[in-house]
Amino acid sequence: MDAHGxxxxxxxxxxxxxxxxxxxxxxxxxxxxxxIRRMTTPSSVRPNxxxxxxxxxxxxxxxxxxLGGTSAILVRTSSRFCWAALTNTRRxxxxxxxxxxxxxxxxxxxxxxxxxx
Length: 117
Prior knowledge:
single chain; alpha+beta; 4-stranded antiparallel sheet; 4 helices; 32% helix; 19% strand
């Protein structure tokens, strides 16, 4: 399952990767702007999904997943925040619950709350 859905990186590694393709800081980019635009432009068939990323009108990108025993989420916000979180369990909607939990944590930090909108 490694090529299909197994873990290949730690949460810190995922954030490092995301900050190199997030379209913000040109000094650390590994992709051309056109490539970033293409990978985050949704299709007309799936308006909230691009090439590997979920996207929304707020400009946030994220990708989550789960397998038996794990749940994970990687988020890049339009306000330059990025995080990854994972758990060693999967129950019901645990990926969505993990996403909600990290958003709530980020909103509790007053200095971040203003940036998150």
